[in-house]
Amino acid sequence: MALLSPVLLLSAGGALFLVYLAQCLTSPLRKIPGPWYTVFTGLFLKWHAFQASRTKYIHQLHQKYGPVVRVAPDEVSYTSYDAVKEIYGSGGSGYDKTEFYDLFRVYGRRTMFTTLKREDHAKRKRIIADRYANSNVVKPAPLSGIQERSRRTEAQ
Fold first, then answer.
1. Is Nucleotide-binding set as a keyword in this record (predicted)?
2. pLDDT at 122
3. Cα(70)–Cα(72) distance, integer angstroms
């Protein structure tokens, strides 16, 4: 019963709070402009998402704080074309994907889309890239095999 004493519970809660506070205040994102509360919580962003006003809310933050805004403890919003191109560009961002892509695995297996590491993705891409090369895409399909089988079927 001594394990559940109020003093011990308060001490443990206080220690957890101090660890959380230290993480918030030493985050690599701490110098990015944004409302003070985004250092500690993403609840405001979630509330606006729930109210279907997330885009408007983020736009207002950009008007107030500029092209780079911290919108949650672990989320930053950019408005510059160069940042969007770097993050979402089709040439690859140069960064590994996060575990978020595990949601899209097919029967527990990785696909080109769900491969997390850049090196693994590059290996897979090399194997199939020739099939999507422009020179192969514009080639007529090899019909000789199909035509031969059709003739044999007709002859029967």
1. no
2. 86
3. 6
